[in-house]
Amino acid sequence: MIFDSYEAFRAANFTAKVCILGSGPAGTTIARKLGAAGIPVVVLEAGSREFSDESQDFYRGTTVGDFYFDLDITRLRFMGGSSNHWAGWCRVLDKQDFEPKAWAPDTGWPIRRTDIEPYLPEVHDILELPDFRPDVPISDDIRWVQLIKSPAVRFGEKFADELDKSRNIAVVLNTYATELAGDGKRVTGARLWSNGQDAGAFSADYFIVCTGGLENSRLLLWSNQRSNGGVVPNATALGRYWMEHPTFEGGNAILANYNEFEVDAVNEAFFSPTLAAMERLQIMNFGIRLIETPYPGVKSLIADLACTAPDMAEWMSAKLSQNLRCAAQLYVAWEQAPLASNQIELSKTDVDHAGVPRIELHWKKSELERRTLVEGLRLFGTTLIEKNLGRVRIADWIANGDDYPTKDETAGHHHMGGTRMGTDVTKSVVDANCKVHGMDNLYVGGSSVFCTSGECNPTTTITALACRLGDHLSKVVAV
Amino acid sequence: MSFFIKNMSRRTIVQALIALPALSLFRKLPDADANASHADPSRADPHEIVEVNGWILKRSDLA
């Protein structure tokens, strides 16, 4: 069932045991799992079926530190959440991403990759994926990484019919919780906001917060402040260890054979370090995206020239009435070192229309990451030489040690951490089952539980974790 | 200058310009004092990895 307002939902007299906040990949997946298990669930979606400026405005905020996107454009607030602007790249975090790295503090998960692998067949169907493929080692240091592409499933569109027909799932649009109330052991209720006004209190046996990698922290910080610590009793790490995938143009490459690596439909191939290389160099995980621009004949020569003398090549290309680019561009994205100082705070001065403080995001890249960027490109360049595959040029701003450019990709719009998983209550917010430490009925879904970010796009891991949490809750709630 | 450019064939322009970037590789050769083997180019390891103007190269690429 799908309702356009909380009023309409109330009139239907649907009694939910579980309340899920948010209808993105995590919220929708958990709801479908619970619904299939015969458990009545209500999903509160803050937006409607379509994008609207009014809804997005609730996401405005500020960033302190490194340059970052406006917070109201880096995520989407309507049915399906940020799956609505997802590009579709799929890969699960690497095995080593779950392991602690001795050279990077606060890394390591309380679960292993094997804990989510049983859910990959489900993820495969949900995201409509081709078969997962193993990576291909090209040297002792570098792997040719096999990212696969989903048709970029929009969860709101794909599952609207199924959710509408479900007798166990009620989706309530234009409705969300401005705060949760709790007594330090249980969430006792939620204050709702629907269609532009306060909609009163709501209660359910269980609450699952799936509002995204920024909003999860915001809601819990505000709820905790309002209930004097009654919602997240161990709040030291709440909002902290926030991570992104910084992404920048890292240079160019001239390849000996442009058919060496199979590329996807947009001429891209991906490379990452082996665990041995990361250990030896004491760097984080990274991904190099090689974008080929294959040209025939003389155009190919000019494209190679564009790698070495871009101004000259541009002039020459214009003389020939062409628009030729360097034959292979390199983009680099990397795993951020988890830092407690990268955190989501509540603004002390700015609130949204419902009176909830907006986000103040503190985000800064570390020296370890800068070293990862430089050493990663060197590693790739050395591998191409050793294997006689080509040559790499590191971009001037990196080679010269200049600041990060502000007119570049900047990051992947991947919001991770803030309510990270762990066993140490001073450094994590949820346990290995995504339950908030010390609370009996409060869980968190989505990438905010990530302890580390790896180098790959998070949606596949988010969906696998949501399947796992859905199974866990089905057993817990059924008791 | 423009006279010559106007009268050169496309092929000549291409050939001349393709040769140009090689010059930039020699603008900033690695410091000869950094490694004793550099003092005598004949003893330098041709497989040594060097960075020149951002390029990651084999020393033999510079020959």
From TrEMBL, chain A:
SUPFAM superfamilies named among the record's database cross-references: FAD/NAD(P)-binding domain (SSF51905)
Cofactor names: FAD
Keywords: FAD, Flavoprotein, Oxidoreductase
A single MF term (Gene Ontology): oxidoreductase activity, acting on CH-OH group of donors
Alphabetized InterPro entries for the sequence: FAD/NAD-bd_sf, GMC_OxRtase_C, P2Ox-like
Keyword match Oxidoreductase: yes
Domain Glucose-methanol-choline oxidoreductase C-terminal, chain residue ranges per copy: 338-466
Source superkingdom: Bacteria
Flavoprotein keyword on record: yes
Family annotation (PANTHER family): PYRANOSE 2-OXIDASE
Family of this protein: Belongs to the GMC oxidoreductase family.
Name of the featured protein: Dehydrogenase
Organism phylogeny: Bacteria, Pseudomonadati, Pseudomonadota, Alphaproteobacteria, Hyphomicrobiales
Automatic annotation (TrEMBL), chain B:
Name of the protein in question: Uncharacterized protein
Taxonomy, superkingdom: Bacteria
Organism encoding this protein: Mesorhizobium kowhaii
